Amino acid sequence: MNASKRVIVLLLLLASTALLLPGLFLPVLTIKGVLTRDGIAHVAPTLLEQGLGTDTIATLKSLMNPTIVSFMEATGTDLKKAIVDKLGPQLTASLTKSGTDIQVYEQTRSILGSVRRLYEVGSPVPATLILLFSVIVPVTKAALVAWAVFLKDDELRRRTLSFVLSIAKWSMADVFVVALFIAYLAAQASSGSTTGGPPLLKFDANFGAGFYWFAAYCLFSLATQQFTHRVAGSAAGGVGVRL
Fold it and tell me: Is the pTM of this model over 0.85?
């Protein structure tokens, strides 16, 4: 392989690496979860009813007019139900009017951060797969191609590039980007209340800069595949390489 071809291949490798590294380290996805105002207002009466325990009822009775308490007990009125019926609608109306959404969840992860987090929560299989196909395979391919372009033995260069081509088939960079997109769509869904009311918990997701860098790396590797086939592969018996 002559010097000009070496320079071209090395420039392509540098460009791929320059796109890959930010894609690995910068945030790729931010997911936020909020308790919605309408959802909180809808479940407020239920929460009020479940929160009124025996001790709470006893405390409220000590604060009420003894005559009213005696009258309610004499007529068989359920004090707990009476409190819920009285305060529930007022609580709902107040929350609907002046309440706000409350953010209760936020996660921002890079690809490597996601791998580390998956290991931390006890999910080594997906963590290892992401690490292998999105980090190890691309870096290994780039290193082998960079080594191959300086080999003087054409047969060894051909074998090296053939090996690179074989492991390139297992690279899931493009698939991983699709997986991120699916995660993005899934995170857009809201968790509705079981009673058919407004959603209590709503998720929102936004791509970070790392996603666009990683997607650019994938597109660049696709665009340069045929070009690299002519530049590096012609000197190694027609073997093409995907950077």
Answer: no
The tens digit of pLDDT for each residue in 33-86 reads 888 888 888 888 888 888 888 888 888 888 888 888 788 878 888 888 888 888
The alpha helices in 52-207, defined as continuous H runs, are: 54-63, 66-74, 79-98, 111-120, 124-131, 137-148, 154-168, 173-187
Q: Tell me how crowded residue 90 is: count the other CB atoms within 10 A of its CB.
A: 10
Q: 137 with 96, same domain? A: no
Please report where in the chains the tokens 């699916």 appear, as a residue. Answer: 182
Rounded Cα gap, residues 67 and 44, in angstroms: 29
Cα–Cα dist 33/118, whole Å? 20
**Same domain, yes or no: 70 and 134:** no
Question: Are 150 and 222 within one domain?
Answer: yes
Phi/psi for 202 (5° steps) reads -125, 130
Distance CA 218, CA 188 (A): 24
3-state SS, residue 9:
helix
In the structure encoding, which two tokens stand for residue 141, read together? 């391919």
User: Residue 208 belongs to what domain range?
Assistant: 1-36+104-243
Cα–Cα distance between 116 and 101 in angstroms, integer? Answer: 31
Scan for tokens 């660049």, then name that residue: 220
Rounded Cα distance, 197 and 141, in Å: 53
Distance of CA 220 to the CA centre of its chain: 23
